[in-house]
Amino acid sequence: MTAVIESEEHKALRSAVAALGKRYGRDYVTRTVAEGKPPAELWSDAGKLGYLGVNLPEEYGGGGGGITELSIVLEELGAAGSPLLMLVVSPAICGTVIARFGTEEQKRQWLPGLADGTRLMAFGITEPDAGSNSHRITTTARRDGTDWLLTGRKVFISGVDIADAVLVVGRTEDARTGTLKPCLFIVPTDAEGFHKHPIAMELNAAEKQFELTLDDVRLPAEALVGDEDAGLLQLFAGLNPERIMTAAFAIGMGRYALARAVGYARERTVWKAPIGAHQAIAHPLAQAHIDLELARLMMRKAALLYDSGDDIGAGEAANMAKYAAGEACVRAVDQAVHTLGGNGLTREFGLASLITAARVARIAPVSREMILNYVSHQSLGLPKSY
Questions:
Q1: For residue 247, what are the CA distances in angstroms to 141, 152, 163, 181, 296?
Q2: Could you give the residue ranges of the DSSP H alpha helices within the chain?
Q3: What is the distance between the terminal CA atoms of the chain, rounded to a whole angstrom?
C-alpha cells in the first residue's frame, strides 16, 4: 500500500537528498546567514547531483521529472535544517515556465544552467501597490521598433543579487482593445535601467529580498516568454508550482523543528521521567506531526495533478496545500520552541529564528486569507465581496 503513496524511486530520492542535507545541516545555514552569504556550496552540490533540475526536461540537462520530485528535494533539505529557498523560484517557477512556453532558443540558453546550478533566475511579480491583486500590476512593456521597453517597480523579490536574470511579470497593451494584459519577460540583472535595492528584513535568511526599479529597460523581442496573448495562462503555470514548493518549504521546516523537540522531550528529565512522557508535552507534538502529514498528503495531490497536466485541479489543491502547510509549520515551530522552554530561545538550539521564518509560509506567496477567498469562490461557488 505504501507504494501507492510513494514509489521506490521517490523513496530513494528522498533518502539521497536527506543525506546531502544532513552533511550541511542547520549549522551551515546559520553560518551563511551570519556571514551575509548565499548557500552557494549547498546549491552547487545539489546541482552537480542533479537535484536542482530534477523537474526539468532531460533534453535540456534536467532529470525529466516534475514538481513532485522537486518538492521532495526541498522538503528533505528543509527537514535536515538546510532548505534552499531559491528552489521555489529558479527551477520551479522560472524553469517550469520556460520549459512549457519558452522558445527553443530560450530553453537552450537557460534550462541547462538552471538544472546544474550554474545559472539562477529570480521571479518578479509583486508590486508595492498591487499586493495579491495581479490584475493591478502596473509594470508595463511598450514596443519600440522590434524591441520592448519595460518600466515599473517590483518588491520582495528574492535572490536578485545572485541571479543572472529575473523573470518579470509585466503588462502590454492589446492593440485591438487597448486593455492591458500580463506578459512575461526575461530581464538580465545587468541590463541598463535595471536597479535593485535591498530591503532590510527582520527575517534572518541567506537569501536577501529586493525592490526593483525598471527604468525603460530595453529588451529584444526574444526576451518575451511564450505567446503575448496567453500571458495569464503562462503566469498561472508558474504560480501553481510556487504554491506547491512553498508547501514543501513549510513542511520541511516543520519537520525539522518537530524532530528537535521530540529529541529533547525524550532526553530532558524532570521528576525522574522524560518530559515526553507527560501528555501535556506529548499530545501537542503528536498533533503537530498529524497536521504536517495531512499537509504533506495535500501537497502530493497537488503535485500529482500538476504533473499530470490538470492545471485547474492543481490550482485548487496547490492553494489548499500551501494553506495547510503554512498553518502546520507555524504550529509545529511554536510547539517545538515551547517544548524546550527557555532553551527554545537560545542560539544553541536554533529554533527561535524559525518563529519568524515559519510565518513566511502564511504570508507568501499569497496570504492564507486570499487562499480562503479562492476556495470560497472557486470551490464553494460563493459570491465575491470584492
A1: 32, 30, 23, 29, 8
A2: 2-5, 8-35, 40-48, 67-79, 86-87, 96-101, 104-116, 231-267, 279-307, 311-340, 353-363, 368-374
A3: 45
pLDDT at 1 exceeding the cut of 50: no
Please spell the DSSP secondary structure of 360-384, one letter per residue: HHHHSSS-HHHHHHHIIIIIT-PPP
Cell numbers at residue 87, please?
Answer: 528552489
The answer to whether 236 touches 365, Cβ cutoff 8 Å, is no
pLDDT at 129: 84
Task: Fill in the DSSP letter of residue 173.
Answer: E
Residue 51 CA to residue 76 CA, distance in Å, equals 11
Q: How far is CA 256 from CA 49, 76, 155, 168, 360, in A?
A: 23, 9, 29, 33, 16
Facing residues of 21 across strands? none
Could you please report the per-residue DSSP string of 251-275?
Answer: HHHHHHHHHHHHHHHHH-EETTEEG
Nearest Cα neighbor of 90 from 302, 242, 305 is: 242
What's the CA angle centered on 26, arms 24 and 27, to 5 degrees? Answer: 80
Q: How confident is the model at residue 113 (pLDDT cuts 50, 70, 90)?
A: very high
Q: pLDDT digit string (tens) for 115-167? A: 999 999 999 999 998 766 666 789 999 999 999 999 999 999 999 999 999 99
